[in-house]
Every structure is written in C-alpha cells, then in structure tokens.
Amino acid sequence: MGGRTLVCGANLPCIYATFSSCVKHSSESREKTRNFQYSKVSRRMGGIATMASVLLAGDAVFNKDGAKGFEFGMVALEQTVEQAESGVKGHAQAMLQVKALLESKSWKEAQKELRKSSAYLKQDLYTIINSKPGRQRPQLRKIYTDLFINVSNLDYAARDKDAALVWECYNNIVVALDDILSRI
C-alpha cells in the first residue's frame, strides 16, 4: 500500500527575464545573474514557508476554547434533535439564572455565564428549528433572532454597566424564551 504525498503548488506567475548585452560579462555581473536565479528559488521557499505557517497556526488562531466571546459553531454534527430537545430547557434555565449575577452587579461573571449558556441554547434551538416543517421555520427564526439580539445587547449593556438596559434586555429574553419554548 503506497502512501500519498501532499503537494502544495501555488499558481503564482513566474516571470523569466532574459538579459542580452554586447558587453563582455564580468565576474560581478555573473554573480548578479546567479543571485537573480536564486531569488526565484528563495521566493518560492518563502511562499511555501508562509503557507505552512498559516496552516499550522490556524488551530491556534481559530481555537474556540481560548475565546471568551460567543460560540459561533451552529450545529454539532453529532447532536440529534432528541438531544437538542432534551437539553434546550436546561440551557434556557441556565441563561435565566444569570439574573442572580445581574442583581448582584457581578457584570463580568454575568457576561461569562450568559455567553456560555447562550452558546448551548443557540445550538439546541438551531437544531430544533431546522427539524421543524418549512412553514413553521420563519416564525421560529424570527423569535430566535430577537432572542439572540437581546442576548448580545444584554452582554454589551453588562459590559457598559448600564443597569436599565440590562434589565430591559433581560425581560425581552424572558419573553422570547417563553414564546419559543411554547412553540417548539
């Protein structure tokens, strides 16, 4: 069984320059010609090294575990509709439990918990909405969008320590959650 090799070939334009002269070339001009030929090779090696570093650094740059922002991975491929339905109420409750942190004005902790619980809830709701018949989806997506816009606004309000906006967004989240959970 033969192994397959990975070949990375970039379609970069290659420019070949031809120099002609009637003057006899000195050793200095021969050295410049050699350097010109080596520069094509070093440019190619530089391109390969850049591509390799981008590919290898990609995991470090796009690693979701280190990020403290919202989780943008929408659907876990291994998540079934049954798993999403069984977890959605628990994740909704976890999001509503942020209220205690908001009351104590623990803004940073509230943001962290909100982000964590909203990521799981978002994944569950997305999976459930996509499993529904086509005529029900637009209504559910509208509520879903309103819900997570308010989650983002609550996050920003907590960052700015704007208590009035925090409570307005929290109340909107409660209404949207009640609405979407009653429909699914």
UniProtKB/TrEMBL annotation:
One of its GO terms (biological process) is photosynthetic electron transport chain. GO terms for cellular component: chloroplast thylakoid membrane; extrinsic component of membrane; photosystem II oxygen evolving complex. Gene3D superfamilies: Oxygen-evolving enhancer protein 3 (PsbQ), four-helix up-down bundle. It comes from the Eukaryota. It is a peripheral membrane protein. Pfam families: PsbQ. Keywords: Chloroplast, Membrane, Plastid, Thylakoid, Transit peptide. Belongs to the PsbQ family. This is PQL-like protein.
